[in-house]
Amino acid sequence: MSQDVVSWSSNLEAYCWSLVYVLSTILFFGIFWRITGSFFLSKLGLLREAKELELPPTYHEGPPFIGNLIAFAKGPLNVVQRGYRCCGDIFTFKVLHKNITFLIGPKAHEIFFQGTDEELDQNEVYAFSVPIFGKGVVYDAPLDKRLQQLRIMSAALRPARMYSYVDQMVYEAVLFFRKWGEQGEVDILESLSDLIILTASRCLMGREVREQLFEKVSKLYHDLDQGMQPISVFAPYLPIAAHRKRDKAREEMVQLFRTVIQNRRRRGVKEDDMLQIFMDASYRDGSRPSEYEVAGLLIALLFAGQHTSSITGSWTGMLLLRNKDVFERVKKEQETVMEEYGDELHYEALNKMNLLHLCVKETLRMYPPLILLMRKVLKPKVYKQYVIPENDIVMVSPAVSGRLDTVFKNPDVWDPDRFGPERAEDKKAPFSFIAFGGGRHGCMGEQFAYLQIKTIWTVLIRSFDLEPVGDLSQPDYNAMVVGPRPPCLLKYRKKKDSFLDRVALFA
Ligand code: HEM
Ligand SMILES: *[C@@H]1O[C@H](CO)[C@@H](O)[C@H](O)[C@H]1NC(C)=O
Questions:
Q1: Which of 69, 165, 189, 219 could bridge 488 with an S-S bond, Cβ 3.0-4.6 Å?
Q2: Structural contact between residues 507 and 168, judged by C-beta atoms closer than 8 angstroms
């Protein structure tokens, strides 16, 4: 009997211990699994099934099938804004047979900007650029080659290069504004387009083009530019007059650069411009970009920088002239910078102009020239409980995201101080300010663009008394690169002791 009690009680003890052992093992592995399991699962791609993902909500307007197309053609931004209000920060919008998924706001932007090239592809959505940049150049090159071409372009735009570009910008701006004379009225968008193609031709295409071939190149550029019609996005090779002119202009452009390149090589001269960098660049296998490719890269940079910069430069001035308080502070800032540097206008002096910088940035928040950025989904992407399937087009909208009141306080008010160190409204979450895109394909020309626009307004403010004419223009959302609807007039009167008359220029 006592024997039984002993064995029973020792059995109980053993039983308890094994229970404790089993439970703690379960607990331990449970915690371990909680910490590491989702990591392994997601690595194995199993989490998708585990979480039961669904397609993003769809947003539709108007009559079936064509409703969305009509709405989108009428006003793309309004549709996207309504979609966001209705469905939240991710929704799919069907246009004909295409499924377009919008990602709105900093959190959703991460999916777009952190995607790799293998997941989110640019080539197909930017295919309309191929007849302009050329076959085998950038968006027509296989990924590996495209990345090498982008690397070559970024070498031409790296910070150390900016010193000499700024000198060339100042030189062109001073010569250009001297032609304005004592007083008058100008369309600032027209003026800045003319000026920026001059700077571009000097910094990008070099001395030969700027000094001997400028008339010819600007005509060719004009034909290339006119070859980019809204219809060209859908049918880049449609046999229309604009496309024929475009193709002819491209051929002539290549021929022209071939001659310039061969001349430089023959004479053994090296110039301080982007053309030289492209000529001297090499791919990983040691081969040089062909003359055809060099011309293509130059055209690509010209297109990336021309309208974007002239438009942003124009908006910045138009807004500045209509915001007297900020304008006065910008003039003060000029005086402060001049106390240190006098009339010397170079890279360092421009970098001291913080307020002017914020004015450009705030302008880009409200009026980004590129209103929609897109990629094609090659591998499904997961956001929240949604999966964006392969073959969808994903889009983000700098124009819509710049006006989110969850990110920017009073988003419809132009207020450069929101980006100042105290408020830094864009620093609370990454990818809040996306006028220059972001991530691996963010704009390479950002610094160049700021320097150019700051140079232009510095020369103008130091040289003229300026006044706005009429109301602020509205953006023209029908254009490929969205700018102010003309006219964009301002009045100027040369100052008594104008910067234009004070400075001496050395070419
Ligand atoms: C205010 C002026 C400008 C704005 C608003 C702007 C905006 C942008 C945006 C939004 C992108 C990203 C496109 C995408 O993700 O699909 C981009 C890319 C790019 N930009 Fe700019 N840009 C400006 C000026 C310039 C200038 C002046 C240059 C060159 C001189 C330039 C060269 C480029 C290049 C090469 C890329 C492609 C980068 C890549 O794909 O890796 N941009 N730009
Ligand atoms: C668009 O999405 C629907 C599901 O909502 C799908 O049936 C269709 O195949 C998709 N179209 C394309 C072109 O991917």
A1: 189
A2: no
What is the residue with the minimal CA distance to atom 2 of ligand 2? 99
pTM, whole model, 2 decimals? 0.90
Q: Tell me if 308 CB under 6 Å of ligand 1.
A: yes
Average pLDDT of span 99-115:
98
In tens, the pLDDT along 370-401 reads 999 999 999 999 999 999 999 999 999 999 99
19 burial type by CB count under 10 A (0-12 exposed, 13-18 middle, 19+ buried): exposed
Q: Which atom of ligand 1 is nearest to the CA of 203?
A: 30
- To test the ligand 1 pocket, which listed residue (443, 448, 455) has its Cβ within 8 A of the most ligand atoms? 443
Q: Which residues contact 227 (CB under 8 A, 6 or more apart)?
A: 131, 132, 242, 243, 245, 246, 247, 249
- Position 1 scores a pLDDT of 44
Alpha-carbon gap, residue 104 to 247, rounded angstroms: 37
Closest ligand to residue 100's CA: 2
Q: Which residue has the tokens 């700077």?
A: 199
Indicate the annotated binding residues. 443
CATH of domain 127-502: 1.10.630.10
d(CA 301, CA 315): 22
Report the 10 Å Cβ neighbour count for 2: 6
How far, in Å, CA of 412 to CA of 403, rounded? 7
| Residues flagged as binding site for heme | 443
Nearest residue (by CA) to ligand 2, atom 7, is 99
How confident is the model over 112-146, as pLDDT tens digits? 999 999 999 999 999 999 999 999 999 999 999 99
Residue 333: pLDDT above 90? yes
Amino acid symbol at 460: L
Q: Report how far ligand 1's centroid is from the alpha carbon of 250 (Å).
A: 21
